[in-house]
Amino acid sequence: MTSIFHSGLSKDISLLLNDPDDFNVIIQVGENEDIKEFRAHSIILRARSPYFKSALATKWITIKDNMIMYKKPNITPTVFDMILRYIYTGELDLTNYLGENILGLLVASDELLIEELFNHVQDYLIEKQTTWVQKNFVLVLHTVFEITNCKKLQDHCLESICSDPQSFVTSKNFPLLDKEILYGLLKRDDFLEEEVVIWDCLIKWGIEQTPSLGKNNNDRTKWNNTNYQALKKTLDQFIPYIRFMEISPADYFDKIRPYRTIIPNHICDEVEEFYFKGTLPKIITASPRIRKIKIKSNLIKPKLASIIAGWIERTNEKNLSRKYNFDLLYRGSRDGINTNTFRIKCNDQGPCLILIKNQKLEKIYGGYNPLSFTNVDGQYSTTESFIFSFENNEDILNMKISRVRLNCANHAIYGNYSDGFNFGNVLRMSGQTIYFGGSSCFDNIGNVLNLNTSFIPVEIEVFKIITL
C-alpha cells in the first residue's frame, strides 16, 4: 500500500515562498506608483499555472544575470501576492481583503489559467461578498462580462438586479452602464421594476451616453430637433424592449409623450390605440414582464419577499407557481403602533404577513398567518404558519424560519381581544409591545427569536397576501 505524505510535502514547498535562495524569476507587477518585485521559482510557477508554463518558456522573456525578468503591469502587487500564496501553499484566506482586490484576483486567476482558484473566487464573490457586489454592480458587471468563463457570476448579478432593481437603476452609476449589459437587462422578462421607472432610467442613461447632451445639456426645454435625433440614435436599439402597455395612460402622457420623437411611429400608434380603444398590439412583440412579487415595504426588499413566498409554497423562490401581491394593510409609523389600530386595519382580511423591526437592531422579525386575524377568542388550527427573521433588509444568507410543529397545529394561531396578533404564544403583540414567548409550538424557535424578551418596535408592517 502506498503511503501518502502530502501534508509534509505541501509544508516544505510553502517554505519556498519566503526563501530567498535558489529563485530564478523576478516578476515586476503593478504600474505608476504601485509597483513591486516578487522573487519566485520558475519550476513551481510552470507546474501550477499553464500561463506561466507557456510564458516562461518563450523567447519573449528577458534574462539578466541568469535571472528571468518578467513584467505583469496589469496585476496589482496585492493581487499578485495572493496568487503566489495560493501557488506555493495551496491556501488563501480572502476574509481580510477588500472586494476590489478579490475582483482583481478573479480577473488575474482567469488570465493565468488557474482554474481552481478562479472557480473558488467566483463562488466566494457570490456567497460571501453579496453586499459588496450589490453596491458595486456597474464595476462588477463591466469586469465579469469581459470574462467568458464567468457565466455563473454574470447570471448571479443579472438575477440579483432583476429581482430587486430599485437601488441599482436609480443609482448614480447606472447611466455609466455598458450598453450591451443594459440591452441584456431590458430584454429580460423578469426585470421586476415598474416600467415607467425603467423608462425614466433609460432616458437618463441615454442623455449621459449621447455626446451632445450629458451634464451640460440635460435640460429638455432647451433642446432642438438635432438633440432629439441624437438621443433617438443612442436609444434606437432599446426602445422596442420597453413594455409600453404596462405604463398607465397618465404616465404615458407625462413621461413618454414628451419624447415621442425618439420613438418609432408604429410603436406610438399601437400604444395610443391600445389606450383609446383597447386594441391589442400587432407589431410590438415584447412580452409582458413576469412580475411574481409585488410589494412596497419600508422594511424588506422584494428579494426577501420572494423568499417568503417560497416558504409559503414550500419551494425555492425561483420556482414559484403563482404571482404574489403583498397589499399593505397596516404600517405602524403611519397608522400608529397599538393593538386597537392593528385590529381595525387587519382583522378578517385573510392570509397575512407581518414584519417587525426592533428600534435597537437591524434585524427584521415576522410571521405568516395563512388563516385570518380575528377578535374572536379561541385557538385556530393550521400547519402552514411560520415565524422568521432576517439579519437586515437585504440579508439573503442568514434568514431563519421556524414552522409550526405538527402536534401544535391546533393552536398555531390565537384569537384574543387583548392581542393584536398571537402566533402560538411565541410571537405576539399586546398594546405597543412585541413579546417573544418561551412556547415550543414552533420548531427551533430559539434560532429565530430571542425568547422571553419584549420590545417596543420602531415599525410594523402587515400585508394582505393576494395570489394570482
Automatic annotation (TrEMBL):
Residues 298-466 form the TLDc domain. It comes from the Eukaryota. Pfam families: BACK (PF07707), BTB (PF00651), TLD (PF07534). Residues 23-96 form the BTB domain. SUPFAM superfamilies: POZ domain. SMART domains: BACK, BTB. PANTHER family: BTB DOMAIN-CONTAINING PROTEIN-RELATED, HL07962P-RELATED. This is BTB/POZ domain-containing protein.
